[in-house]
Please model this.
Amino acid sequence: MKIQGRMFIWLAVFMLVMAIVYGVWSKEPAGTTALFLAFGLSIMIGFYLAFTARRVDAGAQDNKDADVADDAGELGFFSPHSWQPLSLAFGGALAFMAIAFGWWLLFFSAPIVMVGLFGWVFEYYRGENANQ
Model:
């Protein structure tokens, strides 16, 4: 994870330099804002990866002499079946359509988003998938 953290931090430095150069040269606010937002996203990801790398064991990607097979094994738990992202996507689509068609559409999209969000968060605390 150290390598990925460094890569994102260097990408953030590059984005910052390019945002400043682009902003001074073009005087165009939309592209400059997008580049500064890309800088912010890259620095957040880089900081998270660098911070997490100090707390976990070194992986195979941090060893220069490692083989591909050294990184094999279980990576974590991933939900095999979940319908909650579908409801979140549908509710989010309705919410973004509210910007174009009218804010009244938010009254229909907000409950769908909330049901999907609560269902996803508490998916493994109730029903047949309860593991506690």
About this structure: The two ends are 31 Å apart (CA to CA). Residues 9 and 46 are 5 Å apart (CA to CA). The mean pLDDT is 88.
